[in-house]
Design brief:
By secondary structure, this protein is an alpha+beta fold. It has a domain of about 80 residues. The protein is about 50% helix and about 15% strand. The chain contains nine helices and four strands. Strands 1-2 form a two-stranded parallel ribbon. α1 runs parallel beside α4, α4 packs parallel to α5 and α5 packs parallel to α6.
Length: about 170
């Protein structure tokens, strides 16, 4: 399927008239419903900056762009909370960098809360107001992003105590 078709399928739950007889007869209510879906697809494509990929097949897209299409499909359901598990894993660095503003936009424009499980600290700095750091399943620090990421317990847990590893990770 194309990007447009994929997002339209995600909007299926909002289709008011989908029975085959009404569709075959092209009844006005079906046409109106399809127009509403097409309009929402256009809004989501614009929101997620997918315009250049609108007619591309999903299989032709990079992993990062497919991830953005996945997010558009999630947004189609108008969630109030979005849980993302490692959204930056497996995608190129430039795609990770493009993901942060997109996630902030989701949060700000849709009013959706984001709960993100992530190891990419730069991405977390860009999107998180609050961080909970875990070590072996136990909370070690909870608070504002900057405070948590600079806490010595978090640094030791995530980077170890080797000064060269800490230096390679940059100062926050």
């Amino acid at each position: 399927m194309s990007v447009t078709e994929t997002i339209a399928v995600a909007l299926e739950r909002w289709t008011k008239w989908g029975d085959p007889v009404s569709a075959a007869l092209h009844l006005p209510m079906v046409v109106d419903s399809e127009n509403d879906v097409a309009e929402r697809v256009d809004e989501l494509i614009e929101l997620m900056n997918l315009g250049v990929y609108r007619h591309k097949r999903i299989r032709e897209l990079s992993t990062g762009t497919r991830r953005v299409v996945d997010l558009a499909c999630v947004i189609a359901h108008r969630p109030t909370v979005v849980l993302l598990d490692e959204p930056s894993s497996g995608i190129a660095q430039r795609e990770v960098e493009a993901l942060a503003p997109l996630l902030r936009r989701m949060r700000d424009e849709m009013g959706a809360s984001l709960m993100v499980i992530e190891h990419d600290m730069n991405l977390l700095v860009e999107i998180a107001d609050r961080v909970i750091a875990l070590d072996l399943g136990a909370v070690i620090v909870d608070g504002p992003t900057h405070d948590v990421l600079n806490d010595p317990r978090v640094v030791a847990s995530y980077l170890g105590t080797d000064p060269s590893a800490i230096a390679r990770s940059g100062n926050r």
